[in-house]
Design goal:
Largest sheet: 8 strands, mixed
Helix content: 55-70%
Order of helices and strands: HHEEEEHHHHHHHHHHHEHEEEEEEHEH
Number of helices: 16
Number of strands: 12
Radius of gyration: 30 Å
Structural class: alpha+beta
Shape: globular
Strand content: 5-15%
Strand order of the largest sheet: 8-7-6-5-11-10-9-12
Length: about 475
């Protein structure tokens, strides 16, 4: 549990710091910098402090100083500064300097939109594309980005409608339930990956300016001489840094939220009870509607909800990631009719409740199971699939049975068939006897699916602790 909190703490702090920086970074007016096209620099109120006080640095090359009055002054910048102020005052709303509240509203709306799109990426992109398309004037629709064109969001909407009516199709043709649910899981995963660059870029473009302003303000504080020497060049450099910070924050938030809500598709795939899939899909669409509605009617409530939701998703990111990998393996094996013979050197499997409670290995950890020369089962796995490999002794092979399941075989403790220790993917279905021979297990038993929803949910989230058998108690 402490590792889970640590994994969530680092990206959570990054998101919190980002919002503090972006929302409370000084505005252009507060910094004293205004764009000045006449002198290709920035004119402002400059620095006030001991020894000097007056108009700041302008783009003029004149270096005249006055030792009287307020100390150091660059007289020729006064005319440029006054002209610039008049230009902004006359420009009205178009040239109005952005206030902190304006900037905060933009960032809040962008983050809430990103969170809503991560909950259901395909629906979010289609809805956003329709919104932009129908709100744009007719003569500008042809110039809209590709994802706002009907050639993109119309097919996406058709896929969404097909997935929504999946339950109706499965009731009429029950044998299509598992393949269609597997297809839905793969389509949602592929859609989420496809729109990831688009959604992150949209968020980064929105928050780049305030984020870069804060970085520029920090650089101005740390290196005032270097920053004042060429403000235009520094602003361009920090603009890229601000965009990168926004992209990182957007990527972390998007992946965390999407992984959590992708659990819906995996639960639909493995759930044997009718009606549950409709409830889960409605709940996911309801969350999108809540975020969109509150973002329009109560923006403050919407950003609080979005941030809290993201932090909660970060806390369960490990569990969501393992369940997402579980769904991907099962979906591809089912949809592509994968078949593989049981082999001792490469027996792929997922850990289950027995490993969680007796060996402290998280549920649905993907790894390899084998039997060593001493007759002990050993589980090999890589945390997050990429970290260094770890090996965990499981117990004597003779203390375990091979479980025969409908879609896949199991490895269960001898005499305790209702709580599996390992669940093999569907590529090994129908090979329970070969599994017993390969791993030198005790015998083959039948493993049925629990007929109670409560028991199924308990298995999904870890289940009750199974009683160790034989030498496993040691």
């Amino acid at each position: 549990m402490r590792k889970t909190w640590f994994y969530a703490l680092v990206p959570g702090c990054l998101i919190a710091v980002f919002f503090c920086f972006a929302l409370y970074a000084p505005t252009a007016a507060e910094q004293g910098y205004q764009p000045n096209s006449a002198n290709q620099g920035y004119a402002g109120q400059g620095y006030a402090g001991p020894g000097y006080n007056g108009p700041g640095y302008g783009g003029q090359s004149d270096q005249g100083y006055s030792s009287q009055g307020n100390g150091r002054q660059v007289d020729q910048n006064l005319g440029a500064l006054n002209s610039l102020i008049d230009e902004f005052n006359q420009g009205g709303g178009d040239n109005r300097v952005e206030s902190r509240s304006d900037r905060g509203g933009k960032i809040n709306q962008a983050f809430v939109a990103l969170t809503g799109q991560a909950v259901n990426p395909l629906f979010g992109v289609a809805a956003l594309g329709m919104w932009h398309y129908f709100r744009s004037p007719d003569h500008l629709r042809a110039s809209l980005p590709l994802y706002d064109q009907p050639t993109v969001w119309v097919p996406v909407l058709c896929i969404i409608l097909l997935m929504l009516f999946n339950s109706t199709i499965c009731e009429a043709l029950p044998f299509l339930k598992v393949p269609l649910n597997a297809l839905g899981d793969i389509v949602n995963k592929a859609g989420a990956v496809a729109v990831l660059p688009l959604i992150v870029k949209m968020f980064a473009d929105t928050v780049a300016e305030p984020a870069s302003r804060h970085v520029a303000a920090a650089a101005n504080y740390l290196f005032p001489t270097a920053y004042a020497a060429d403000v235009g060049l520094a602003a361009q450099a920090w603009s890229g840094a601000g965009w990168l910070v926004g992209a990182v924050v957007g990527f972390i938030a998007y992946v965390a939220v999407w992984l959590t809500f992708n659990v819906v598709d995996v639960m639909i795939l493995i759930c044997p009870f009718p009606g549950v899939d409709a409830v889960l899909k409605s709940a996911r669409l309801g969350m999108v509607g809540i975020l969109a509605g509150t973002n329009q009617m109560a923006p403050t409530t919407a950003i609080i909800l979005a941030v809290v939701l993201t932090l909660l998703c970060l806390l369960v990111a490990g569990w969501s990631f393992r369940l997402s990998v579980f769904g991907l393996i099962f979906s591809t094996d089912i949809l592509f009719f994968r078949k593989k013979a049981v082999a001792a050197e490469s027996l792929k499997t997922f850990s289950c409740a027995g490993m969680k409670h007796n060996r402290k290995i998280p549920m649905r950890t993907w790894g390899t199971l084998s039997t060593n020369p001493a007759g002990d089962l050993v589980f090999h796995y890589r945390p997050w699939l990429v970290l260094p490999e770890r090996s965990v002794p499981v117990g004597k092979a003779a203390d375990f049975d091979s479980g025969r399941g409908l879609l896949n075989p199991f490895v269960v403790a001898d005499g305790v068939p209702d709580t599996p220790w390992f669940r093999l993917p569907p590529r090994y279905r129908g090979q329970a006897d070969d599994l017993r021979t390969c791993l030198s297990l005790h015998e083959v038993v039948d493993c049925g699916v629990s007929g109670k929803l409560r028991s199924w949910l308990g298995e999904l989230f870890g289940g009750k602790k199974p009683a160790p058998a034989g030498s496993m108690a040691s």
